[in-house]
Specification:
Enolase-like, domain 1; TIM Barrel; 2 domains; 8-stranded parallel β-sheet; 3-stranded antiparallel β-sheet; 12 helices; 13 strands; 21% strand; globular
């Protein structure tokens, strides 16, 4: 194989599109309900026609919207084209952060596309370029959104029938125990994790861990509001389950503040701003003796595939954002029964248009 010249790997064009992707079912958490995931996808093309793809799934909780991402992407893509080399990832990341410090999802979309193109040019999967072992990717959980107890029973039953044996259950209602008992009845052999999305007080969290443990829940994610680090610590010390920080740990710089309060940190590309920031957050968590779960918003494969490349570094995965969609514009990493199959990726991050 003849190596590329510098000109052949130069980014010569960029584009982005906005998509409204319907979900298979309404998705409810303690903060609200959605029926559609509005995402933005980015494409970068080099001199030879090779394309890198990335995606943004902005979350209003972090003060990002599809409109805000759409507004800033032209500026970010112009910067990437001016740099030209997708392998100049340190320089690109610094430029993106300077241009859009508060638009993490927008930066993440460009970051994924840059890494996808660079690895595609090298004709190898991104996880291999990082020297990672694809066989170590954990199985992703499949999320059961809030519904009536009967509705959550049915959702869990359908998930198990489709082969998903790790379930993440959303709680934060006035009848949480009834709902989780219904899920456990439908999936008696499933591994279950619970996410309260900031809905409880520390006292409720401590009390609730007792019956959560009785129902064989693995761990509890973000039981209290994001700013209540002391509440996380109390539940971790006095409760009966390991505790994970999601909303309380947005980037690597937040890890020290939660390190003695939780057992697990949740890393999301849409929170931290891309693949290199996610790597730093993972390594910071590891340096503090914490486990890590790679998570996501409700997203397209255009962004989920990028996150999958980091899964050999972590203990847990919650990368089902595209699995919840009725339709998508891209295919991504194979996830039969929730098993993330990085060996299915021939090059790049494994994104291909449908």
């Amino acid at each position: 194989m003849t190596p590329d010249t510098d000109s052949q790997r130069t980014i010569v064009s960029s584009s982005f599109e906005r998509h409204d992707l319907p979900l298979e079912e309404s998705f409810t958490i303690s903060r609200g309900t959605t029926d559609t995931a509005t995402v933005l996808t980015v494409e970068l093309e080099d001199e030879t026609g090779r394309v890198g793809v990335g995606g943004a799934g902005p979350a209003s909780y972090y003060d990002e919207t599809p409109d805000s991402v759409e507004e800033v992407l032209p500026k970010l893509l112009e910067a990437v084209e001016s740099i030209g080399d997708p392998h100049a990832q340190q320089v690109i990341e610094e430029r993106l952060a300077a241009l859009a410090p508060d638009e993490a999802a927008a930066r993440a979309a460009v970051s994924i596309a840059v890494h996808d193109l660079a690895a595609t040019q090298a004709d190898e999967p991104l996880y291999r370029r990082w020297g990672l072992d694809g066989a170590r990717a954990p199985t992703t959980s499949y999320t059961i959104g809030i519904d009536s107890p009967d509705g959550m029973h049915d959702r869990a039953q359908r998930a198990r029938e489709r082969g998903y044996d790790v379930l993440k259950v959303k709680l934060g209602t006035d009848a949480d125990r009834d709902r989780l008992e219904a899920v456990r009845e439908a999936a008696p052999d499933a591994r279950i994790r619970v996410d309260a999305n900031c809905a409880w007080t520390p006292e409720e969290g401590i009390k609730n861990t007792e019956w959560l443990a009785d129902l064989s829940v693995e761990f509890l994610e973000q039981p209290v509001p994001s700013e209540d680090i002391d509440g996380l610590r109390r539940i971790s010390e006095e409760g009966a389950l390991p505790i994970a920080a999601d909303e309380s740990c947005v980037t690597a710089t937040d890890v020290p503040a939660v390190a003695d309060a939780v057992d697990i940190v949740v890393v999301k590309l849409m929170k931290c701003g891309g693949l290199r920031p996610a790597q730093r957050q993972i390594l910071a968590a590891k340096a503090h003796g914490l486990d890590v779960m790679l998570g996501c918003m409700t997203e397209s494969n255009a962004s989920i595939a990028g996150a999958c490349q980091l899964t050999p570094l972590v203990e847990y995965a919650d990368l089902d954002g595209a699995l919840l969609l009725e339709s998508d514009v891209y295919d991504g990493v194979a996830m039969s029964d929730g098993k993330i199959d990085l060996t299915s990726v021939a090059r790049g991050v494994g994104i291909s248009p449908r």
